[in-house]
Amino acid sequence: LSMKPDLLQLCPLMPSLEADLAERFTVHRLHEAADAEAFLATHGSAIKAVATGGHIGLPPAVGARLPALEIVAINGVGYDKVDLAEARRRGYRVANTPDVLTEDVADLAIGLTIAALRQLVRGDGHVRAGQWPKGDLPLGRKMSRKKFGIVGLGRIGRAIAKRLQAFDGEIGYASRSPQDVPYRAFESPAALAAWCDVLIIAAAASAETRHLINGPVLEALGPKGVLVNVARGSLVDEKALLHAVQHGQIAGAALDVFENEPHVPEGFHGLPNVVLTPHMASATHETRADMAALVIANLDAHFAGRALPTPVV
Ligand code: 8YV
């Protein structure tokens, strides 16, 4: 008889993490099951732990099938897709992987901003398609000395601001509460958007921040403004954004996250003024190894009866 507790895995994880999980748990992979309903009917009642991605969390319909659940270990910092009230009510723990991915997400925010302003992706396509001998690209926009607005000044927002300081511009922010920082505070995303050239989204997703960036905010950002999102798709009204980039209401956008991932509205595909990446802000060898180590550390701590290193609940 195996003494390993049963763990439900909800999405592919990197091979070394899957191996570490298999050493400790009897792992059941829901994402590989042909019939999820039947799979949960067979294994659900034994499951004590869940390993999942930040972008997947724990769907309520799955959580409801796991009566013995003790801990949800998220391989990511965002816990917007896990119902924390339900976790408290049912008495299971939730852990995430903060801090270790902050630098990567901030780095990608800078990369996306430069990519959007300087048309990096379009330029690459131009060369590959053999267009260079036929003419130059239209001009891009300057990055240095711009006004940068950051929505959400938590760990990631601050790391973005720190990097932006090298560009000799001005930095403003909008956040839930005023912060002790040398950046200009704005009372709302709309006020920030009206002031800045580049609006970077780094806030946590929640019911309160859903569609925080809506039509009026994009209108305030204006025809020279660029939107960058490395947070969650739900923070932006994607229909309003598509309309804005299609009609020149804003200059462009660089998006790593979308409302209905991995589905990206087709309207975006043909637009030269948008840069689209597949939710890859934390996707480096180094950071994914650090995240994996934290997932394991939280699970180990729980099953050893110790305090979790990075608990959410
Ligand atoms: C990951 C994320 O892409 O940290 C988060 O909240 O969304 C990302 O780091 C995802 O969680 C990987 O599983």
Q: Would you kindly provide a written description of the structure presented here, covering whatever features stand out?
A:
By secondary structure, this protein is α/β, with parallel strands linked by helices. The protein folds into 2 domains: 6-99 and 286-303, Rossmann fold (3-Layer(aba) Sandwich), CATH 3.40.50; 102-276, NAD(P)-binding Rossmann-like Domain (Rossmann fold, 3-Layer(aba) Sandwich), CATH 3.40.50. Helices cover 34% and strands 16% of the residues. The protein has helices at 15-24, 36-43, 60-63, 84-90, 102-118, 120-128, 155-164, 189-195, 215-221, 238-246, 285-303; strands at 6-9, 26-29, 47-53, 71-75, 93-95, 147-151, 170-174, 184-185, 198-201, 226-229, 252-255, 274-276. Strands 8-7-6-9-10-11-12 form a 7-stranded parallel sheet, sandwiched between helices. A 5-stranded parallel sheet has the order 2-1-3-4-5, sandwiched between helices. β6, α7 (155-164) and β7 (170-174) form a beta-alpha-beta unit. α1 runs parallel beside α11 and α5 (102-118) packs across α7. The longest helix has 19 residues, at 285-303. It is globular and about 65 Å long. It binds 2-keto-D-gluconic acid. The site of 2-keto-D-gluconic acid (8YV) has 10 residues, from loops.
